[in-house]
């Protein structure tokens, strides 16, 4: 997807590549068909001036939001006019690359109706939603509670005399707060509220509440709704209208309660289905599984910018070589950059696996098999947490790897960070989600003698062996064995989980003791997730990777695993499974991996296939013509619209000629 100006400053780098670039592009896209769709949609967006991102960071909020409405509308028009398929439409919106209300409409509102609505309700609402005759958002979080879903305060009280629910926000803290698309765009909200029938509170259920007129978009009577305000960073997530919403005894028909998991009859009887109530959290599971691939995409963007720029940028030199050195030659640059490159590849592989895990659980749920739900919840929650935290930190690291120029918006990195960093909070605060994983591990361990753990927790079935045998690595190349690596990650995770489980088992079982141990619980959850990431990367590699790219993927896989081992050396050492010497051997092996990545680095980021338009970065341009474009870019700065700055007469001139202010000053 080359779209430079023809002069390739990185041609020398590209000539060094030792793998089949095209095969890698197809692999990273998820297959030939996906690759073709991505290429087509990326070009479609890049060539359409309405989708331009050029001035985004300079726009004031109102203009920014209006522009994002224009783009979302234009995207929908393009989808309809060109008759794009659902997958193509999704890709098109992806390349428009701007958080907007349609993310929540397609990403949460529709999936929640599919998951929690009866067939009849799906027939009623989905056709309207699919043609965007209504726009929906996902209104769960309130001012007072986000993580603690059971603590939500909005009420939906059934009135059998009119066959309606009365939606009400009884306190300030019950105000819905944060839902994307709610602030200005949505006509309907999927509201999570406490269901009350005959004065009895049945806990949190989902309701479809109309909030704006379909005639003129004004809020419906007794609905107070608006945008919550400007968020972190320029551009970034400010294209989204995160909103607030209050109901003052607003009536909605009884049929607007999503009734797949529980029903309220006309006479006010509450009937639960035999399905687990956690299915009500299904839309969150759906979004969390997709977040892993998204993390790979965001990280790969930052890494593409940092790798290309590091190959262009030269500083200092040595007496052995003429000229200055490319900064990518420095070991420290490699040791910060190449693990992130490997991580982006790892998350792509694991993201593909997550999709199959999700497809599997959906199939099972349709057959009323709920057995894998806890494991899928733990996986989606845990990997969402780890991958978003690492990606957000990784984008910031890439900014620093680009030195001063990384701090300019022209690098594309500040905006990328601002748009991405809320992923650590939305769809579940990352610590809260790790605590969910920890609870799953504790439960699995407590039942291990009776129930053999399966799937990603299967290794806990070997807890005795993993707790007693230590690492056998005696030379560096002993590490170059995926079974050896896997066992190290399994042993570390099993031992960390067992240690905290034992400590809790020895105690009284009080909540206070649990709280006291939460730092260790979070560490053990992180260890479990890191094991899943390493093991699934290995597994994906070993199943049908084309010959022309396998070797490079192996190098990236070892790079990823070794860097995880080294970054978490404290944990590995504390469990007693590895020695300091074995860690030192892994460090040496990691450097060998860097040597193997180095000649391929630029081609490995080319394989992500990001267009210049999508990257939006002078530093990450395909042609490497960084300096010309940084310089040209400065002339687009609005401060340079006039040679003498606006404000000179009022504020600069008096400073320069102080006597205008204080003619008798002695200074
Ligand atoms: C493409 C779309 C773009 C998206 C843009 C992003 C926009 C952002 C949207 C949002 O942020 S939407 C709001 C997201 N909110 C959250 O994620 C809230 C986080 N909180 C929770 O998920 C839960 O409340 C909790 C903290 C996990 C649970 O707390 P609690 O202990 O009170 O749980 P209970 O409700 O009592 O349930 C406990 C029981 O249920 C299991 N469980 C919890 N979550 C799930 C789940 N999602 N799926 C399946 N099972 C779940 C949990 O493990 C417990 O099991 P047991 O221990 O009882 O076996
Ligand atoms: C950009 C953005 C978009 C969003 N979009 C939506 C949306 O579309 N719809 C929607 O419903 N919501 C949305 N949200 C809300 C989001 O889901 C919540 O903010 C998120 O789930 C975190 O909840 P909280 O804000 O209550 O954090 P809190 O739970 O208040 O967290 C604050 C701190 O307390 C810690 N903490 C809390 N409880 C515990 C505990 N038990 N143990 C240890 N530590 C704890 C957390 O780790 C965190 O450090 C969005 C949020 C953002 C930022």
According to CATH, the fold-level topology of the domain at 134-274 is Butyryl-CoA Dehydrogenase, subunit A, domain 2
The span between the termini is 63 Å
* Rg on CA atoms, Å: 27 Å
Count up the helices.
23
Shape: globular
Per CATH, which architecture of the domain at 134-274? Beta Barrel
Low-pLDDT sequence parts:
none
Q: How would you classify the helix and strand content by structural class?
A: alpha+beta
- Which range does the strand content fall in? 5-15%
- List how many beta strands DSSP finds: 13
Helix content range: 40-55%
Tell me about the biggest sheet? 6 strands, mixed
- What is the CATH level 1 assignment of the domain at 134-274? Mainly Beta
Annotated CATH homologous superfamily of the domain at 134-274: Butyryl-CoA Dehydrogenase, subunit A, domain 2
Q: Kindly state the mean pLDDT as a whole number? A: 96
Small-molecule components bound? ligand LOHRUJSQ, flavin-adenine dinucleotide
């Amino acid at each position: 997807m080359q779209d430079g100006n023809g002069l390739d400053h990185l041609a020398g780098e590209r000539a060094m590549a030792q793998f089949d670039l095209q095969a890698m592009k197809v692999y990273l896209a998820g297959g030939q068909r996906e690759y073709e769709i991505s290429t087509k949609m990326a070009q479609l967006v890049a060539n359409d001036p309405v989708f331009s991102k050029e001035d985004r960071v300079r726009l004031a909020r109102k203009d920014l939001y209006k522009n994002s409405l224009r783009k979302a509308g234009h995207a929908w028009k393009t989808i309809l006019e060109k008759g794009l398929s659902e997958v193509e439409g999704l890709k098109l919106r992806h390349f428009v690359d701007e958080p907007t209300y349609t993310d929540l409409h397609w990403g949460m509102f529709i999936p929640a109706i599919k998951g929690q609505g009866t067939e009849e309700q799906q027939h009623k609402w989905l056709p309207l939603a699919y043609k965007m005759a209504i726009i929906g958002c996902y209104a769960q979080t309130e001012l007072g509670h986000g993580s603690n879903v059971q603590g939500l305060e909005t009420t939906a009280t059934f009135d059998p005399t009119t066959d309606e629910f009365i939606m009400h926000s009884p306190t300030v803290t019950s105000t819905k707060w944060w839902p994307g698309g709610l602030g200005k765009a949505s006509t309907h909200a999927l509201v999570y509220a406490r269901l009350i029938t005959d004065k009895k509170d049945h806990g949190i259920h989902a309701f479809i509440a109309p909030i704006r007129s379909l005639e003129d978009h004004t809020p419906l009577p007794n609905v107070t709704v608006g945008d919550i305000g400007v968020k972190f960073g320029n551009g970034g997530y400010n294209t989204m209208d995160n909103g607030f919403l209050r109901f003052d005894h607003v009536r909605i028909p009884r049929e607007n309660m999503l009734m797949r998991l529980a029903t309220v009859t006309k006479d006010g009887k509450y009937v639960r289905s035999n399905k687990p109530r956690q299915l009500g959290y299904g839309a969150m599971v759906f979004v969390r599984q997709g977040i892993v691939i998204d993390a790979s995409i965001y990280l790969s963007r930052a890494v593409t910018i940092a790798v290309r720029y590091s190959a262009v940028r030269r500083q200092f030199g040595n007496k052995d070589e003429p000229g200055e050195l490319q900064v990518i030659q420095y070991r420290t640059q490699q040791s910060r950059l190449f693990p992130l490159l490997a991580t982006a590849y790892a998350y792509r592989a694991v993201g593909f696996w997550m999709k199959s895990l999700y497809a599997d659980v959906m199939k099972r749920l349709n057959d009323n098999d709920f057995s894998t739900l806890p494991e899928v919840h733990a996986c989606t929650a845990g990997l969402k947490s780890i991958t978003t935290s690492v990606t957000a930190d990784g984008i910031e690291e890439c900014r620093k790897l680009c030195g001063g120029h990384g701090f300019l918006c022209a690098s594309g990195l500040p905006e990328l960070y601002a748009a991405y960093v809320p992923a650590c909070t939305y769809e579940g605060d990352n610590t809260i989600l790790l605590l969910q994983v920890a609870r799953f591990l504790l439960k699995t361990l407590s039942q291990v003698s009776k129930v053999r753990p399966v799937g990603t927790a299967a290794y806990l079935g070997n807890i005795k062996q993993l707790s007693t045998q230590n690492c056998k690595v005696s030379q560096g190349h002993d590490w170059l064995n995926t079974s050896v690596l896997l066992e190290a990650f399994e042993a570390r995770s099993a031992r960390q989980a067992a240690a905290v489980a034992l400590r809790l088992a020895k105690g009284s079982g009080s909540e206070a003791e649990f709280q006291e141990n939460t730092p260790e619980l979070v560490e053990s959850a992180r260890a479990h997730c890191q094991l899943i990431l390493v093991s699934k990367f290995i597994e994906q590699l070993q199943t049908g990777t084309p010959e022309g790219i396998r070797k490079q993927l192996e190098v990236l896989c070892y790079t990823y695993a070794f860097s995880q081992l080294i970054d978490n050396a404290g944990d590995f050492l504390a469990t007693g499974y590895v020695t300091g010497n074995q860690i030192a051997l892994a460090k040496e092996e990691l450097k060998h991996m860097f040597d193997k990545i180095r000649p391929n680095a630029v081609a490995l980021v080319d394989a992500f296939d990001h267009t210049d338009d999508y990257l939006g970065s002078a530093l990450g341009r395909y042609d490497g013509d960084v300096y010309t474009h940084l310089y040209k870019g400065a002339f687009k700065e609005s401060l340079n619209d006039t040679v003498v700055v606006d404000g000179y007469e009022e504020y600069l001139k008096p400073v320069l000629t102080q006597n205008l202010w204080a003619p008798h000053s002695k200074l």
